[in-house]
Amino acid sequence: MYRFATLVAATGVLATPALAQSWDMPTPYGDSTFHTQNIRQFAEDVSAATDGALEITVHSAGSLFPGGEIKNAVRSRQVPIGEFFLSSIVNEDAAYGMDSLPFLATSYEEAEALWTAQEPVITELLAEQDLVPLFSVPWPAQGLYTNGEIETIDGMTGLRMRAYNAALEEFATLAGAAPVQVEAADIPQAFATGQVQAMITSPSTGANSSAWDFVDTYTAIDAWLPKNIVVVNARVFDGLSEEMQQAVMEAAEAAEARGIEMSREETAAQTAVLEENGMTLAAPTDELTSGLQDIGDTMLENWESSASEPALEILNAYQSE
Ligand code: PCA
Predict the structure, then answer these.
(1) What domains are defined for the chain?
(2) From atom 6 of ligand 1, which residue's Cα is the shortest distance away?
(3) Tens digits of per-residue pLDDT, 74-84?
(4) Fewer CB within a 10 Å sphere, N or C end of the chain?
């Protein structure tokens, strides 16, 4: 019996291709999020292209690591690969936070141009931490979720507002609101307990968190398109065969293009879901837009006064296009 078990175990080992690898991939966002669906497809593509020699398992909704820890988990090789919200690491360098500056890039074309300017700089910065960026996909433009329509910036005074990064915290403060940091997965809970009363996020995250249960109005201020990024640990990546590296890079390129398409389609589709569930869709009044633009100007000035040299170079490159 003992001998038989040993034989089976030994055969099992031999049956596994020598270089087969299995990677865990954490993301902060839930299964209904289009980014998560996109990275699951990326994982399938990698598996197919390597004949199963590289299997990636996606762990969604912060189940393996909370959003704020994913970058360091990949850096320290606790996991080989992960997805996170790029601007969440703006404290390391202003270059990471540019996609969350209000009105700097407000369309997919501008978001792409901004990423083109950011990518080489960010690639260099991440290399210092043993990280290789694989692809980056923007969320749809960010809109305002409130009870009742906000017609001027004064309407935001005193509102407890959900924030997801430092830029949104600054934004809320400049608008006279009170920012409260809440991860996407905790939005329903934060509204239900009265921790927050308003938020700025995409139609995707609004629909994915059933915003209509807590607020009745969506105002499409379309002020910025923040991005997710997928990174792999450089040492793990370098350890792959050349064919495997190429398979990962090709799947990554396809994932970026597919993700941008999914994001574009989400904008109208999920805004319609908000409306179908009874929310009022509002266009911002001219007064609100100009109030928001003033805040954007102030934030850009603040950003410039503390930005690193490489970050300022990104801004120059982007603005001179
Ligand atoms: N959804 C994420 C980030 C930006 C977005 O649209 C969130 O709200 O946390």
Answers:
(1) 4-88+118-138+227-269 (3.40.190.170), 143-223+279-319 (3.40.190.170)
(2) 202
(3) 999 999 999 99
(4) N
